[in-house]
Amino acid sequence: MKEQLRKNLDEVIWNIEQARVSINEHHIVKLVAVGKYSDEENIKTLYELGQRAFGENQVQQLQQRMQNLDELPLEWHMLGHLQSNKVNKLIELRPTLLQSLDSIKLANALNKKLVEKNQKLSCLLQINSANEESKSGVKADEAVDIYQQIKETCPQLKLKGVMCIGAYVEDEKEIQKSFELTHKIFDSLKYDGATICSMGMSNDYELAIKCGSNLVRIGSKIFN
Ligand SMILES: *Cc1c(COP(=O)(O)O)cnc(C)c1O
Question: What is residue 1's predicted lDDT score, i.e. its pLDDT?
Answer without folding.
Answer: 87
